[in-house]
Amino acid sequence: VQLQASGGGLVQAGGSLTLSCAASERTFSNYAAGWFRQAPGKEREFVAGASRSGGTTEYANSVKGRFTIARDNAKNTVYLHMNTLKPEDTAVYYCAADRINIFANRNGERYQYWGQGTQVTVSS
């Protein structure tokens, strides 16, 4: 499967953005999905994940209550709704898909497919 991430941009602190990740396969419902991010000089970190159906979600503590992951399997797309953005949310955001597991994993090594990344910059 190929993943295309979009929706990044420049936003002021306190603002909102929604990232989208479109999958090339109609059977995207067979993949768990995750969002990860990597800030300059830092390691990639888990942000949010959704099970194949989207019924089970997980979040990093740093974004819990501010970010929401959702998926529309009919559109083969997973979203990351980001609210109350902070400068520390600045990073390149990547979507990922896992064909093996039903539920999303916080370990990026469990994902077989990755999108190209989209830059999110939050100004103070």
N- to C-terminal separation? 37 Å
What is the helix tally? 0
| Radius of gyration computed on alpha carbons | 13 Å
Unreliable segments (pLDDT under 50, ≥5 consecutive)? Answer: none
Secondary structure tally: strands: 11
Overall residue-averaged pLDDT value: 97
Report the helical percentage.
under 10%
Structural class, please?
mainly beta
Q: State the major sheet.
A: 7 strands, mixed
Order of helices and strands: EEEEEEEEEEE
DSSP strand content: over 45%
Question: What characteristic shape results from the CA principal axes?
Answer: globular
Describe the 3D structure.
By secondary structure, this protein is mostly beta strands. 0% of the residues lie in helices and 48% in strands. It is built from no helices and eleven strands. Strands 2, 4, 5, 6, 9, 10 and 11 form a seven-stranded mixed beta sheet that branches. Strands 1-3-8-7 form a four-stranded antiparallel beta sheet, with no helix packed on it. It starts with a strand and ends with a strand. 35% of the residues are buried. The model has no long low-confidence stretch (mean pLDDT 97).
Labels describing this entry:
124 residues; mainly beta; seven-stranded mixed beta sheet; four-stranded antiparallel beta sheet; 11 strands; 0% helix; globular
Summarize this entry quickly.
The chain is mainly β.
Record the SSE blueprint.
Layout: E1 3-6, E2 9-12, E3 17-23, E4 32-38, E5 45-50, E6 57-59, E7 67-72, E8 77-82, E9 91-98, E10 113-114, E11 118-123
Parallel strand pairs: 2-11
Antiparallel strand pairs: 1-3, 3-8, 4-5, 4-9, 5-6, 7-8, 9-10, 9-11
